[in-house]
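Query form — protein Phosphonate C-P lyase system protein PhnL

QUESTION: What is the three-dimensional structure of this chain?
INPUT:
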Amino acid sequence: MRLEVKNLDKTFKIYTRGSIEVKGFNNINFKLKKGEFLSLHGPSGAGKSSILKTLYRTYTTTSGNINYYKDDGTVIDIAKVDESEILKLRKEEVGYVSQFLQILPRVSAVDVVSQQLILKGESQEISRQKAKEMLDYLSIREELFDLSPLTFSGGEQQRVNIAKGIIAPKSLLLLDEPTASLDKKNTIRVIEKLKQLKQKGVAMVGIFHDLEAMEMITDKIYELKRV
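ANSWER: The structure tokens for Phosphonate C-P lyase system protein PhnL are given below.
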């Protein structure tokens, strides 16, 4: 077991609207094993992205449990632990790939991607070489490697974002529409990389609007409805 979500609820309080309460999602329950991919599926407004952000603890929960099982047998309830433990989990165990690339300006594409390996102890030289190989695989032209991705097209930025998220994979990976801006060729390449991560035991929870891409990688689907 890698993740067990039990009776998870989230209600948002909108202070600019007189503190009215809006239900984000309710009664979410699922289990995820090592090497499994679970897709969250449902209409817009059903809470898919909010669930991912809650698993990453960007959002706090209203109620419920998010039990994360470490390799040493320790169980951590992401919904309950303090911020220092969450920061440690994000650094060592749980990764998140959002729809948008968020980086410092003037940092090159190679450095954005290679930094993830350097943080895990790889040398700068080896990390940069692996980053270049990953960027090349994801169809980023070599002449762009040393430029800031903030100058790239939307699709190119998304591919850099994916490279950053998967080059040094953690035990649990959360993916919010990783192929949204990609053409079919690059979508297939991303799916192939995710399949390789599955074979290494990485557990993943993801959102796809591309149903064909979702079916290529998914082991099980969690259906959601608007609350």
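ADDITIONAL NOTE: The chain has a mean pLDDT of 94.
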